[in-house]
Every structure is written in C-alpha cells, then in structure tokens.
Design brief:
By secondary structure, the protein is of the alpha/beta class. It has 14 helices and 14 strands. Helix 1 crosses helix 14, helix 3 runs parallel beside helix 9 and helix 4 packs parallel to helix 5. The longest helix has 19 residues. The chain binds pyridoxal-5'-phosphate (PLP). The site of pyridoxal-5'-phosphate has 14 residues, from helix 4 and helix 5.
C-alpha cells in the first residue's frame, strides 16, 4: 500500500484554500445583455433578421454550406430523423453513453434506438460494435462526438456507405471541434448542435442543424415553422403578405431573435472560449498524469476536441476510493463535478421498452463506474483551476492502494 501524500506547493495550497468552484458558470457578460436589449427595443422578438444573421455567421464559422437555427439540439436531431423519413419499426444505431435526447428522437416515430458500445480509450462510439448491430431494419448511424472529441468519422462514413445507411452526427458537444483539419459541421448531411445553457456556445436554449444538402436545409426551414412554405416569417413583417400555404405537418422549432442575438455574441467569443478550455484541459492533464489512479482523456492524433467536458477516470486497482465517494469528497471541499453519462440501457425507460439489461454494454458501464467530469469553463480563474487540481490530486494521493 502506498501512503505517501504528494506535497502541494504552499503557494497553491495557501492561495486557493477558500476557493469554491462550480461545475459550470455560463460565459456571459454585458455584451450579451446589450445584444438582447437591442432586440427588445427593435420590437422584433421572434425568428427574423438576427436569426438569419446567426445562421449565416455560424455556417461561415464551421464551414457549413447550410445552417438552420432551431429551438434546441433535440429539435435538430428530430428534424434529421424526419429528414431521413424514419418510420415505425426502423432501427438507428446510438451510443450507449449519451444523453437521452440522442435515443429519444429515434423513438418519436416509433423507431428503435439500437445501442452501441464505446471505444474504451476515446469513450466514443465504437464503429466495430456498430457494424455487428446492423440488421435489415437499420436506417441510420447516430454517433455522438463525446465530450467534444470527434468520432472515428472515416470508419463510420465508410460503414454507412457500404451498408446504405444515413449518418447523423450528434455534435451537441463539438463546437468548435475538428476532424482531420476540418471543423465538425463542415461536412455531412445531418449535423446537430446544441446551445443549451451548459454547452460551449449558449443561447439559453437553442440548436442548429448544418447540412451540405440544400434540399434538406430547405425542408428543415419549413418544418421548424409548422410546415409553412417559403419565407413564412415575412408574413409578420411590414412588407409581408398575408397569404401562406401549409405544405406538411411541421413543428414549432424556430429560434427567436432574442436567442440569436445572444448566439451572435457567443459566436464572436467562440475562438477565445475554445482556447481557454484547451488551456484548462492541458493544465489538468499535465497535473494528473503523474498521479497514480487518475486516467486523463486520450485525444486522437487526427482530432482537435472542443473540450466541452473534461472526463477523468478513476482506476479502482490503484485507488481505495470509488467514484461516488470521490465526488462527495470533492463536493465537501467546494468542487462541483458531474457524470457523463448514465448509460441509456440502465434507465427504466430503455430497460422496460427495449428490454435492455445491465451488463450488455461493458465498456460504457466500465467508464460510467469510473468517470467524473471536472469543471472546465472559459471564465475559470487560475485560482479556480489550481484549486481543482489541488483537491483532485490530494484526494487521489490520500486514497492510494
Ligand atoms: C445537450 C445534448 C443534447 C440535446 O441538446 P438540447 O439543446 O438540450 O436539446 C443532445 N445530445 C447530447 C449528447 C447532449 O449533451
């Protein structure tokens, strides 16, 4: 048994003793306040000029041919399901370690989310396991760029091509992330981003579907506003006309100009925020690599992650403290954390409806049992970063086997 407790430099210990660090703090300031005020004063609150400007600038930023602003990332995923014509009885391959939104959108049409295990190194969708799960009913592959690290897209795209399947990317964590030098969102027929409060770019609630297919973009624009054709929003504007036609049953999935105004400011900060996240990740990795029992995230050589999450894994062979107690210990010393994710097959809904059972996705379960997500947000101060490093390292050193 090792009992040595790594001494923490007095400079760090003394300077950070009283610092409390939340898991997340949104990076908003007076610029967003001013942008929203401007929209309120303009009198035009819902989808309009700000939304279209946000779509244009977002498309330019990620290098997408089309970007369609929506009310949430879930709405973007759902419109992708509608876009491929998903029907009852169809199957879609979804990673086991994701948020329920990824699986839920498959169920909207009565199709079945078929879960796929993960690669234990990257914690990302495992294309080899996906290949084993393909049946005659499989219609699409829906990988998640987990924590903002791009999946093995080449293998996934090749698999989809060989088996005649659609690829829909859940890019809720992946702004801005790159795969082989290209931003996520710059290629692909369906890439879904989320602007939920904790994501790397937030509008409070919101989402974006990017696509290199103009017809898909046009249909998504129609579906987000009740299936009304063309520039339906113009009917509300001064120069608009009262006539409109409903082409199909759509949804109420539009983004408002109030949200888009926040999004535009956030987009202008995206590079700076991304740099700040990367710096925090690098500091964490440097600090934890030398601590037995702490396993830092592995980054693929051909990827630049967004670092939406920093997922640390605890090795039970080296530590006498389990994940839950580790989280409690951190909480007791003022550090907020989270867990990403409780695998879908362990939730009552997926077990009851699709007969999933514990033990079916061993890699996802193994990661789930060991993982803890540390604070990583762009407004973290050096004192806050130091404090997280100190408390995490001390907790690990105090519980060496
Ligand atoms: C946040 C999230 C979503 C859903 O995004 P919303 O904008 O909240 O609807 C989907 N998938 C994953 C992996 C997420 O983390």
């Amino acid at each position: 048994m090792r009992t040595n407790v790594q001494p923490i430099p007095a400079r760090i210990a003394g300077a950070t003793a009283e610092v409390h660090v939340p898991f997340h703090r949104a990076a908003l300031d007076e610029a967003e306040v001013a942008a929203v005020s401007e929209v309120v004063r303009s009198g035009w609150l819902t989808t309009g000029p700000k939304t279209f400007e946000f779509e244009r600038k977002f498309a330019e930023y990620v290098g997408a041919r089309n970007a369609v602003a929506l009310s949430s990332g879930t709405a973007a995923l759902h419109l992708a399901m509608v876009g491929i014509g998903l029907q009852a009885g169809d199957e879609v391959l979804v990673p086991a370690n994701t948020f329920t939104a990824t699986g839920e959108v498959v169920t909207y049409s009565g199709a079945r989310p078929v879960l796929v295990d993960i690669d234990p190194v990257t914690m990302n969708f495992d294309p080899a396991d996906a290949a084993r799960k393909i049946t005659t009913r499989t219609r699409a592959i829906l990988p998640v760029h987990f924590a903002g690290q791009p999946c093995d897209l080449e293998t996934i795209r090749q698999l989809a091509k060989d088996r005649g399947l659609h690829v829909i990317e859940d890019a809720a964590h992946a702004l801005p992330a790159s795969y082989r030098g290209r931003r996520i969102g710059s290629a692909g027929r369906f890439v879904a981003f989320s602007f939920y409060a904790t994501k790397t770019l937030t509008t409070g609630e919101g989402g974006m579907l990017t696509t290199d297919d103009d017809a898909i973009a046009e249909r998504a624009r129609r579906l987000r506003l009740h299936g009304i054709s063309g520039d339906a929003w113009k009917r509300y504007s001064a120069e608009g006309h009262w006539y409109y036609e409903v082409e199909e049953a759509g949804y109420k999935y539009n983004l408002t100009d109030l949200q888009a105004a926040i999004g535009l400011v956030q987009l202008s900060k995206c590079d700076a925020h991304s740099k700040a996240r990367r710096r925090i990740a690098e500091r964490y990795t440097r600090a934890f690599e030398g601590v037995p029992g702490l396993e830092t995230p592995r980054v693929r050589e051909d990827c630049t992650p967004s670092w939406h999450l920093y997922v640390l894994r605890l090795d039970p062979d080296q530590l006498r403290i389990g994940r839950d107690s580790f989280i409690e210990a951190l909480r007791g010393r003022g550090i907020g954390t989270s867990v990403h994710f409780i695998p879908l097959h362990l939730h009552p809904f997926y077990r009851r409806t699709y007969r999933y059972k514990p033990g079916q996705f061993p890699q996802a379960e193994r990661v789930y049992a060991r993982c803890v997500s540390l604070p990583i947000f762009p407004t973290m101060t050096d004192r806050e970063i130091d404090r997280v490093i100190q408390v995490v390292a001390e907790t690990a050193w105090e519980h060496q086997r």
